[in-house]
């Protein structure tokens, strides 16, 4: 079972007690206003967790995934499978995040495996969570709108440190999510923008929904994550529509899809989009 750390302890273990302002240039953020994490100790909480188990002991049946490289000496690129829960959706006409909607939960797993390969946290959206969404994922206002639940600006330095700990110097990071082009990516970009920052230029994104549209037509199965799990006969324990459970499901699905498409490293890079793609969603 994942170990839960107090927020201040997790910060100290990953950043060696460095303040957030020291991390910003190290993490490759574009110049902008320094983050204001307030007091991490005062906002200490126990929903941020860094999993210290090796891959496989947390998720049964998921093996480290490495694509065929163009050179045997080329280091592998981390594949970060991630998912978010939010307070709302998108406006169908403009395609923008509805004004004021925020992320309430974030989870990520490095599919390449190893220790400390996952990161998850609840996030304080600083606004109410609509009741109809709370019935879907059990994330309600009382759960996240508390002073002991961190805001995205509090968690951002930890997230950047986590990514750097998985990244090979000089190599990109590939983020993978289902519908990342229209949902996860724009929300993440807006949270960075609220911190007067931009996502690093070496972050690339792959949308498994776009990959799913290339699968052989099958009227029995839709393209949402739940339907893809049924298509591949994947069973994932735990509540659905929570960030880490959906990450677990997508890890299985992405491995199956990668096999179906015989994806190589080059093929995966061809599917990727740059972080700058999401700038059009910023208000």
Given helix and strand content, the structural type is alpha/beta
CATH homologous group name: Ribonuclease H-like superfamily/Ribonuclease H
Report the CATH topology name.
Nucleotidyltransferase, domain 5
Q: Note the gap between the termini.
A: 40 Å
Into which percent range does the helicity of residues fall? Answer: 25-40%
Would you mind describing this structure in some detail?
- The protein has 283 residues and is of the alpha/beta class.
- The chain has a single domain, classed as Ribonuclease H-like superfamily/Ribonuclease H (Nucleotidyltransferase, domain 5).
- It has helices at residues 7-15, 20-26, 131-137, 141-144, 152-166, 180-194, 208-212, 225-231, 243-261, 265-271; strands at residues 49-51, 79-86, 103-110, 118-122, 173-177, 203-207, 273-274.
- Helix 1 runs parallel beside helix 5 (152-166).
- The radius of gyration is 18 Å and the shape is globular.
């Amino acid at each position: 079972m994942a170990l839960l750390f107090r927020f201040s302890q997790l910060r100290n273990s990953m950043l060696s007690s460095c303040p957030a302002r020291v991390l910003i240039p190290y993490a490759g953020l574009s110049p902008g206003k320094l983050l204001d994490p307030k007091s991490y100790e005062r906002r200490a909480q126990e929903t941020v967790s860094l999993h210290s188990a090796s891959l496989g002991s947390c998720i049964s049946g998921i093996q480290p995934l490495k694509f065929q490289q163009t050179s045997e000496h080329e280091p592998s690129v981390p594949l970060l499978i991630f998912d978010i829960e939010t307070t709302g959706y998108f406006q169908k006409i403009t395609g923008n995040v509805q004004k004021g909607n925020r992320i309430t939960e974030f989870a990520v797993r490095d599919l390449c495996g190893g220790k400390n390969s996952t990161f998850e946290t609840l996030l304080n959206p600083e606004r109410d969570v609509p009741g109809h969404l709370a019935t879907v994922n059990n994330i309600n206002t009382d759960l996240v709108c508390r002073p002991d639940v961190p805001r995205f600006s509090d968690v951002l330095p930890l997230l950047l440190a986590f990514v750097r700990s998985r990244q090979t110097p000089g190599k990109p990071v590939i983020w993978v999510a289902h519908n990342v082009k229209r949902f996860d990516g724009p929300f993440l970009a807006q949270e960075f923008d609220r911190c007067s920052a931009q996502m690093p230029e070496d972050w690339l994104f792959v949308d498994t929904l776009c990959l799913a549209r290339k699968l052989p037509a099958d009227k029995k199965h839709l393209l949402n994550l739940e339907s893809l799990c049924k298509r591949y006969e994947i069973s994932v324990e735990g509540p659905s529509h929570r960030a880490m459970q959906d990450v677990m499901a997508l890890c299985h699905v992405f491995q199956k899809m990668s096999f179906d498409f015989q994806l190589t490293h080059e093929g995966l890079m061809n599917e990727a989009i740059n972080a700058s793609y999401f700038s059009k969603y910023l208000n």
